[in-house]
Design a protein that fits this description.
The complex is a heterodimer of chains A (108) and B (536). With 108 residues, chain A is of the alpha+beta class. Chain A is built from 5 helices and 4 strands. Chain A has a single domain, classed as Alpha-Beta Plaits (2-Layer Sandwich). Chain A is 24% helix and 15% strand. Chain A has a two-stranded antiparallel sheet with strand order 1-4. A two-stranded antiparallel ribbon of chain A has the order 2-3. In chain A, strand 2 and strand 3 form a beta hairpin. With 536 residues, chain B is α+β, with helices and mostly antiparallel strands. Chain B has 3 domains: 298 residues, FAD/NAD(P)-binding domain, CATH 3.50.50.60; 87 residues, Flavocytochrome C3, Chain A, domain 1 (Alpha-Beta Complex), CATH 3.90.700; 87 residues, Fumarate reductase/succinate dehydrogenase flavoprotein-like, C-terminal domain (Methane Monooxygenase Hydroxylase, Chain G, domain 1). In chain B, 33% of the residues lie in helices and 18% in strands. In chain B, strand 4 and strand 5 form a beta hairpin. In chain B, helix 3 packs across helix 10, helix 11 packs antiparallel against helix 13 and helix 13 runs antiparallel to helix 14. Classes of the chains: A alpha+beta (108), B alpha+beta (536). Chains A and B meet through helix 1, helix 2, helix 4 and helix 5 of A and strand 4, helix 7 and helix 8 of B. The complex binds flavin-adenine dinucleotide and iron/sulfur cluster (2 copies).
Chain lengths: 108, 536
């Protein structure tokens, strides 16, 4: 589930408020968006993909909340790791168009 | 009786030729196609067109087959038995043609298809985030007005019973919306009963309920028990990768015959104990291909500190209901019209029996169906709008919605309690995966009681109304599913009856269902057989 909105990184663009399919966030008048309805989170990771500054982190457990430490997430390069993997960061554009599904769906 | 819609109702109002409800692939293609045919289009989504629905966060294989007769023939024949001999060859052919065209259009629009080692473009799969980001861009460029976070709650009908628009709420603005339209396309996806399968919690059967209130009926609702493998802690359902897995029990003993393609063995075991998987049969090149094929499959492992290739992890089967089932609104002609004038259905909201009978499991057909049916429904809706012209300007419209919307001065509507009660009947493997007459009867009794209970409950409070309508829609959907499942006294497609374990050639027919207070089921003939039917 969604666990982190990094106050340090967030630029308050409110893109995550717009893209979360189940309306987990509330925009705040003076600060980063608030995780207002965490129990509605469907662990789809879409907010992470759309955050332009990798300020969000969705933990692996879909069944309940978890404790995360921002410092550790930065050190282990997990913040922004999904956006990078699909080629949506400026430095990873070459990963777009490398879908290898065709190698897995052919008879084996 | 339904309320007449006064002109003042709704905080924001739109007049459109075509209203598309739902902005997944089916809705996005419908909107583009309607706009391309000259219609003024509004698209509303419960979430956000581009990130919402089953496709956006996933990766989908697509039924993309070169237009060569031998290849097409093989593609169609390969699914005949799996689908329980109920699919329609003519529809399969149409969908193969349209999907081929649409996928090639995506390439023209800039979708980054991968190339193989010979440099040939590979077009049999789509990455959800890329695909749906591109579709949103196309929808906007087509001049469609998009309303995000604007769930539809009910349809509007005119005095002849034709659908004339819809209304709902804008949940981030605390206001409501009303769209009057000459035609409406329902593209709200399937119903996965809030099981937390990837991207599926927006899919609660809302469109089914709305359409049923306007008089639409359904088909193949017994084929609604798709379950997919996921790590017990995770949301990502990706059964394909488990073709390389070994399944073990608590003690570490290999479970004979358990496999991604033999999920029923896993379901049986899960009834009594935990089941573990390890994707230990993937060599290095397969592992690398998996990571590049669907990066999000690895998120929950990487983040949970598990190496799925070398370590065992607990698995579960998440219900995807009609999302990877084939039941949905009955389609009455090639334009994807429903049984109600002015109402069209596309994608998972519509039945997919036409191309895959009683079984899909995803397997590329649903994605092909979503883009094809959306394309046709949008074009037909635009056509209807053109034919109606200005004749609808003065029509009186009424609200078709009932449950959770009407003041009853009775008990309040408690969406969380209703949702749990429905889930208690549809999620358990021993009720829905493996079905028996006795258990189906019992579940239906609970669900019928629940329905009459919520019919008498008061209108939901404004802050609860979306969840209340979702809970009501899930209740109604479960009743069409189980009533149909009770009538089909055989095992066919994904519908498994423990008390009738064999395919019965006398039951090669389709089941139509419908009704709200009284649920009914009728049989109708299946399309002509292309191959000899054989018991599975
Ligand atoms: C994990 C996963 C993997 C899959 N893999 C494959 C595959 O490999 N191949 C394949 O063919 N198929 C696959 N499928 C199935 C495929 O994703 C669906 O068939 C496809 O997404 C259907 O498109 P759709 O537009 O009908 O519905 P969706 O994509 O589900 O979109 C429905 C939209 O309707 C909106 N909506 C719902 N209710 C309302 C309301 N009341 N008002 C307004 N809007 C509403 C939702 O927010 C959503 O945006 C997979 C499904 C899942 C879950
Ligand atoms: S998308 Fe990222 S930067 Fe923008 S408001 Fe959300 S967390 Fe902050
Ligand atoms: S993971 Fe999905 S549901 Fe959860 S907050 Fe992010 S976008 Fe919303």
């Amino acid at each position: 589930m969604i666990e982190l909105v990094s106050a340090e990184r967030c630029t308050q663009c409110n893109i995550c408020v717009a893209v979360c399919p189940v309306n987990v966030f509330d925009a705040a008048s003076d600060g980063p968006p608030i995780i207002a309805r965490q129990s509605d989170c469907q662990t789809c990771f879409m907010c992470e993909l759309y955050c332009p500054v990798d300020a969000l982190f969705v933990a692996h457990d879909a069944e309940g909340p978890a404790v995360v430490n921002e410092q550790v997430l930065v050190e282990t390069a997990l913040l922004g790791s999904y956006r990078e993997a699909i080629g949506w960061t400026p430095g990873s554009r070459d990963r777009r168009g490398t879908d290898q599904s065709f190698k897995l769906t052919q008879p084996h | 009786m339904a309320n007449t819609l006064s002109n003042a109702a709704g905080s924001i109002q739109f007049d459109a030729d075509v209203l598309v409800i739902g902005g997944g692939p089916a809705g996005a293609w419908a909107a583009c196609s309607a706009a391309g045919n000259g219609a003024r289009v509004v698209l509303v989504d419960k979430g956000y067109c581009g990130s919402s629905g089953a496709t956006a966060p996933s990766g989908t294989g697509v039924w993309y087959v070169q237009p060569e007769q031998a290849k097409r023939e093989a593609a169609m024949a390969s699914r005949e038995a799996l689908g329980g001999f109920l699919a329609d060859r003519a529809w399969m052919g149409r969908v193969l043609d349209q999907t081929y065209d649409n996928i090639n259009l995506l390439a023209e629009w800039g979708y980054p298809f991968a190339t193989n080692d010979e440099g040939k473009s590979q077009r049999t799969s789509l990455q959800g985030p890329e695909y749906m980001r591109l579709m949103r861009k196309r929808v906007r460029e087509a001049g469609v007005k998009i309303l995000d976070h604007s769930p539809a709650l009910e349809l509007l009908v005119d005095d002849e019973g034709a659908v004339a628009g819809a209304m709902g709420v804008r949940r981030q603005q605390d206001e409501s919306w009303v769209v009057r339209a000459k035609a409406v396309v329902i593209a709200t996806g399937g119903c996965a009963f809030l099981s937390k399968a990837l991207g599926c919690n927006v899919l609660t059967g809302d469109g089914y309920l709305m359409a049923a209130e306007a008089g639409a009926d359904f088909s193949s609702m017994e084929f609604s028990n798709a379950y997919a493998i996921a790590p017990a802690f995770g949301s990502v359902t990706k059964t394909l990768f488990y073709n390389w897995a070994t399944f073990t029990d608590e003690a570490g003993t290999v479970i004979p015959d358990a496999a991604g393609r033999h999920r029923s063995v896993i379901a049986k075991k899960l009834l009594s104990e935990k089941v573990y998987a390890q994707i230990d049969r993937a060599d290095e090149s397969v592992q690398a291909a998996m990571r590049m094929a669907q990066p999000n499959f690895f998120l929950s492992f990487d983040r949970g500190g598990i190496n799925p290739f070398t370590q065992r992890f607990p698995v579960t089967l998440r219900l995807e209901g009609t999302v990877r089932g084939t039941g949905g609104l009955r389609i009455t002609d090639q334009s994807c019209a429903t049984s109600v004038p002015g109402l069209y259905a596309a994608g998972d909201a519509a039945t997919r029996e036409l191309i895959c009978g009683g079984f899909t499991g995803g397997g590329s057909h649903n994605a092909a169906w979503a883009m094809s049916s959306g394309f046709w429904a949008g074009a037909a809706a635009a056509d209807r709008a053109r034919h109606l012209g200005t004749r609808t300007a003065k029509r009186v419209v009424t609200r078709a919605g009932g449950v959770a919307l009407e003041t009853r001065n009775d008990r309040p509507f408690d969406p969380a309690r209703v949702t749990r009660a429905v889930q208690d009947e549809v999620l358990p493997y021993d009720k829905n995966y493996f079905r028996t007459g006795t258990v189906l009867h019992h579940s239906l009794r609970q669900l019928d009681l629940l329905w009459s209970d919520i019919r008498q409950a008061d209108a939901a409070a404004p802050e609860d109304v979306v969840k209340a309508r979702e809970a009501a829609a899930m209740t109604a959907t479960a009743r069409w599913m189980f009533r149909s499942a009770l009538v089909r006294t055989e095992t066919r497609g994904m519908h498994k009856r423990e008390d009738y374990a064999k395919l019965d050639t006398a039951q090669r027919h389709l089941l139509t269902s419908g009704g709200l207070d009284e649920v009914w089921v009728k049989t109708r003939p299946a399309p002509a057989l292309a191959v000899q039917e054989v018991a599975a």
